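Quick start: what a row looks like.
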Amino acid sequence: MGYSNMFFEDFIIEIPKIPEKELEKFEAKSILYSNYLLEYTNYRVLHNPLRKFPYSTVCNIDGNLFKKIKRSELFCGKGDSWKKDVRIPKEHQLGHELYKAEKSDFDKGHLTKLEDLQWVYYKC
């Protein structure tokens, strides 16, 4: 399902590790960082619950399978679905308030471009 660090046949790509000092902050608040490793299809987010923002995102991209689709075609024709992930507490995530903030330069999809993940699109 999620990101594979063995996507390429000839070498392994390791994902970033959380620094030890950060892990100590989690432990001080009784937070298991492993609960914040979120898997999607060919995609993984390592979320920081203290900053309410991901440490990193990684995805597998296969340009040979690229498919041009419209946002309205996503999720079986339901379009984009921008919401907080139900697998982690809402108070540990930023939502629409990030994009509406006065000096925000963030656009939806800022973690990984839709075009990079379109090859995993499945027809309903």
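That is the whole record. The mean pLDDT is 79. Residues 20-28 form the longest helix (9 residues).
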